[in-house]
Write a structure and sequence with these properties.
By secondary structure, the chain is of the alpha+beta class. It has one domain (2-85). 20% of the residues lie in helices and 14% in strands. It has 2 helices and 6 strands, in the order E-E-E-E-E-H-E-H. A two-stranded antiparallel sheet has the order 1-6. The longest helix is centred in the C-terminal third of the chain and has 12 residues, at 74-85. It is globular, with a radius of gyration of 15 Å.
Length: 86
């Protein structure tokens, strides 16, 4: 599964909506590394144990975006997808 993400910008009027997003383009493509659950790399949140597959899926790859490969046992896939989409 491949995901292309766009950079999020704070809205000027946060009473209505806290994050504003534009349509995807090469100019606003997100390229930073994230921790699982789309937490920014510099976050001080406590580390959890994740498989190497799930960790890799949050690392930007210049030729394809953020990629999750469906490999492994059904239980591992279910757990990884749970973390991947949350």
């Amino acid at each position: 599964m491949r995901q292309l993400r766009i950079k999020s910008n704070l809205c000027s009027n946060q009473r209505i909506i806290s994050i504003c997003q534009d349509d995807y383009s090469l100019l606003n493509e997100e390229k930073i590394f994230f921790k699982p659950k789309w937490i920014g790399e510099g976050s001080n949140k406590e580390e959890e144990e994740y498989s190497s597959t799930i960790i890799k899926s949050f690392k930007y790859q210049s030729d394809s975006g953020y990629v999750y490969e469906f490999r492994g046992s059904l239980l591992d896939l279910q757990n990884n997808i749970y973390y991947y989409i949350n």
